[in-house]
Amino acid sequence: MLFRLCWLLLAIFLASCSGGSDSEEDHAASTFETLFEPPRPPVPIPGPADAIPWSDPDYGPEGTFGLHDFTETPTSNVHTIYLNGNAIKFAVTAGHLKAESSRYPSSSSQGKAAIFYTAYTRDELPEGTRPVTFVFNGGPGGASAVLDLNFLGPKRIDWNAPGSATLPLADNPNTLLEKTDLVFVDPVGTGYSKAVYPSRNEEFWSVDEDASVLTDFIIRYINANHRQESPKYVYGVSYGGIRAPVIGRMLLESGTAKYADKKDSKNVLTGLILNSPILDYEADCMSNDASCGGSLPTYAAVAADWGKSIELKGKPIDTIPDNVVPFVSAYNKLYDSTFSGVDNSKAPDRAKWEAFLKQPAAPPFLNRLFELTGVGKLHKPGDSAANNPWIAQPNMNSFEFSWYFDAGKDDAGKPLKLVLADGRATITFDDTDSALDRRSDFDPLAKLYQEQFIGYHSNLGYMGSNGEIIDKWDFWSHHPDDPVNPGRLVSSVPDLSESLSLKPDLKVLVQHGYYDLNTPFYQSELVLAALPEAIKVPVKLYEAGHGIGPEDGPKDKLFLYIRVRRDLEAFYDQPLPGIVLAAIRSPRPERVQP
């Protein structure tokens, strides 16, 4: 099986790009022929091997803490921020808790890790009713600090402040601290988290071991801080679409058995928030030989934003899914019957596809792809793979779409390609897409913030983005008892289904950006459609890319941030024994004028 796994680490790009308005015929020629001149074959699309590596022996596969290299005594401080004219006093706590995987007996010295966390709590409020949210980044290989500072936590960097020796900070008006306490958690091999000897980091680099040790961390945190009765939420971004539902299922299956006290608590798990999630790698065409039909609405949304979708030009963004979805169904059926062999990793076979290209149905199909996505050209007799990318690769994944889309040139005349995290943004072809760049320029800022604001010091570097993890991650062993496909790639849908069966009133919020090429929104809708009718999970859509946050932005984007914050607040305010209030493809909000 070909495993074309892209680096799905959180990257937030909300800059808007406007494309030129060439005629359709001019654009059709420039899309493929200018950038990929025949008779050259299509340019190879980058994969994990092309990503820029970043490693540190402390956080590598063999990395480990000695028994005396860390302490469970945390660092704490008290601060105040001002939100909506109110003074909000809170405690910030950072440190490690030792957690263990359920794979080993508790008496064993193996299967243990020291998990680093940063917690923000309003200790003056009653713990029994005050929610607590455990926040996880994606990757796998991403630490949580990028979701704390500037995003959901109480502080953001004030880039407009005068230069000084300290990191300039301002209150974050969009923090979730008004609604919930926040615990930002770093999985093994990220942040300051490592295995504890004799275990090694790599032992926790799999779907189940990762979720198991993090589930135990949550229970240990609950016991250490007497949060047994608090409503509990798990928030996951990107790969968090796998991690959070698996943790949720493990928490519900464990119940209160490991609680130190208050074992009659009813608040084992209240809700899941899945931000830009990947839910099923088997169905993801960037990871596996699968149909890319679920990506077509995202391609169409990107093309419409650039003014390059003939069919969707000028239509409101919220009408795009309904315009494209019927075609997706036809596309997926044709993939199954005709062109799945083009992507066959063991023995590529174009025979059925080439035969289809000779039929009368081929030109309308190719033209519809062009009219929706702006990639390719209107079909003419004699066209071939040399001058039409849809003929060369009918099952175009996001990597290929980002390269083939005509995004123009920069001021120096260099051709541009789309950014995977947000198809409205561009980089030059010789730049590394942030979704493939396994380094993190944010790490020094995170470490400085921890030292200056929290008072936490470590002799380790903060590992915000560990590029070694994804290459060694075990995506296959989850649900190994699948009788239909025991070797399938991981899906969290069975875990979500089981969680909703165990707790029918579990609240679930799924958020996606229309322009996110990393985790296309309609692919999640297709995957979630497999859930039983009684436990359907809605998807909230936003004019955004990968990683949807309530942070500040340009005035013309203010409507987006207001919506995101409002939806999150409504989710927390929702009565516990209820259903998710979010509606699929909710009406487009009025834009706030600058």
From TrEMBL:
Biological process GO terms, please?
A: proteolysis
Name the Gene3D superfamilies on file. Answer: alpha/beta hydrolase
Q: Which GO terms describe its molecular function?
A: serine-type carboxypeptidase activity
InterPro entries membership: AB_hydrolase_fold, Peptidase_S10
The source's domain of life comes to: Bacteria
Alphabetically list the UniProt keywords.
Answer: Carboxypeptidase, Glycoprotein, Hydrolase, Protease, Signal
Pfam families per the UniProt record, alphabetical: Peptidase_S10
Q: Which residues does UniProt assign to the signal peptide? A: 1-23
According to UniProt, the name of this protein is Peptidase S10
